[in-house]
């Protein structure tokens, strides 16, 4: 993944595209998997909610 994929420019301001890790702080992003968000540095994991149809 390129750094340019983690940020975008909106109205002359830099906006982060991904969530930051709550344990590691800003600058360490959570990787998006199909069913979870994971930090590669500390191993923090959040599971996404499943939709029941």
Question: How is the largest sheet built, in terms of strand order?
Answer: 3-4-5-6
- End-to-end Cα distance, whole Å, is 33 Å
Radius of gyration from CA coordinates = 13 Å
Seen as an oligomer or otherwise, the chain set is: single chain
Mean pLDDT: 88
Helix count? Answer: 0
- Can you tell me the residue ranges where pLDDT is under 50 for at least 5 consecutive residues? none
Helix amount: under 10%
The helix-and-strand class reads mainly beta
| Tally of distinct domains | 1
Explain this structure to me?
The structure is a single chain. It contains no helices and six strands. A four-stranded antiparallel β-sheet has the order 3-4-5-6, with no helix packed on it. The chain has a two-stranded antiparallel ribbon with strand order 1-2. The protein has one domain. With 53 residues, it is mainly β. The model has no long low-confidence stretch (mean pLDDT 88). Belongs to the eukaryotic ribosomal protein eS31 family. GO terms for molecular function: structural constituent of ribosome; zinc ion binding. Part of the 30S ribosomal subunit. Keywords: Metal-binding, Ribonucleoprotein, Ribosomal protein, Zinc, Zinc-finger.
Write a concise keyword list for the protein shown above:
four-stranded antiparallel sheet; 0% helix; two-stranded antiparallel sheet; 53 residues; mainly beta; 47% strand
